[in-house]
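Technical appendix A lists one of the benchmark inputs used to test multi-chain prediction within the project. The record comprises three sequence entries:
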Amino acid sequence: MTNDVATTVEVDLDMIAEQVWSAFLNSGEDEAVFAAEDKGAHMDLAASVAMVGAYEGHLIVSCSHKASRDVASVLFAMEVDEVSQDDIGDALGELANVLGGNVKSVLPSPSQLSLPRVSATEHERWPGTVEVSRTVVSWRGEPYVLTLLSGSNHQEVSA
Amino acid sequence: MEMTPALFAFVADLVYREAGMVLRPGKEYLVESKLKPVAKNTGHPTVGALANALRTGSASLRTQVVEALTINETSWFRDREPYAALQDVILPDVLSNSTGPVRIWSAACSSGQEPYSIAITLEKALPIGRSYQIMGSDLSEEMLRRSRAGRFNQLEINRGLPATDLVTYFQRAGAEWEVIPRIRQNLSFQRVNLCATLPPMQKFDVVFLRNVLIYFEPETKRAVLDRIRQVLNPGGWLLLGAAESTVGIDSVFERVPVGRTAIYRAPARERQLVKEVTQC
Amino acid sequence: MLGIVIDDSRAMRKILRGLLADLGFEVLEAGNGREALDLLQSDGRVPDLALVDWNMPVMTGLEFVVEARKLSELRQMTLMMVTTESEHGQIVRALAAGAHEYVIKPFTRDGIIDKLALLGLVPVGVL
């Protein structure tokens, strides 16, 4: 199913990302750069939330293992080498949740936000969806790719 | 390049000349943090390099630096008590003494939280049939642009705006929130430099001049208060910041204690205007 | 002062717990609405403040607010949503269900403190 509404919606992912980073992640010297160059680097992990309702789609944030540890280390206020896999899943999931909720608020409503899901990108497939918007945040030298997909395909992990 | 004492002194002097704001030694960290984004945007590797470039730089660079240093982060209904005083003491007085629109000036309104907080207070407190006009002014064109737009992001909205006010007086505008047009039509914005002769303006019932005087030297404070008094209606009201007072600077305003704060009142009948002698 | 932070993210609970602790609160934690109701029943004390996320497994924050409002013993507890749900209609729903205040994620420390001052839970002008 195509979603004609979605493709006409302007979503300022950069503005939303900027607020999330400035509130939760930026600290001192490590200011993030928004709308950074998309170098197509390999992403290890993807955290996503689904939107179901007037808008059908997904908001995905993907990044490297190192980047995911940075996020967990700041959110949990712990050293990078102290964070567990659980901490990483929790922190990345919350990042996707906060980004997703703010993205949902500018899309056709009412829609419901799913709980976040975090997994290795090699296990993620998004058939039947269209990319509506995409941007890259560069923070502490690592790219974070934010993607908004449109499409009602409810397909899950295809490992 | 290091931010040397000489460079800091140069920046402080610039800010004093352009905005009348005193930046004493010891505020280096403030200059550093506020100018960092400007340095980045204008292609200077460090704040020190930016400060150095100011010596020969363009007027636009100087304006950007002055604006970055004079902008204050503001909350909604900042300190709360001035808004309680407005509702409980000032408005009943103004309403009983006049019949026209209630006129309020929000001087140095920054990104607009203060004038819109005043507007929300009036929306709730004014009796049916009474209208209001609010003028917001600032030195910074960027702040005026933002104030006029009446748009605020989630982080700004969270700063003390009651949720019931958010859903009543704001609507979504993309990723931001926008003050509803019914309120915005009562506000106007213009650039005013408090340190120079004021442009011609219709008199006001109330002036909010909060957290502005603290940046000025005593003579400048006196001159600013004198100009404000000339645009206040007889018996008009002045609200200052929590740390500010007219006491010891201007003997004409009457100090009126309200709750844990104080507000100030111009004489009921206009005094003869004193020729303005102090410039800053 | 006693506060309870209800959020399914441990990271978010840690951030909010730290913030409340700095303001002098003792802090309880729960990972969803059901867990919070159970904890409050077994603990027996009535928190002055509950910070409530919306999207959580088992029982959402909105459901928690509805349930908490039904319990007369929790009447004194101030309910503040802290959630990424930020449509106009969602905020209206939460307020109608009985939430007293609403903070949109992402938030800053100052934002939370401003709202707590608004609710009379911390003095105005805290830094």
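Confidence is low (pLDDT under 50) at residues 1-7, 155-159 of chain A. Helices of chain A lie at 4-8, 13-25, 65-75, 85-104. Comparable benchmark entries are summarised in Table A2.
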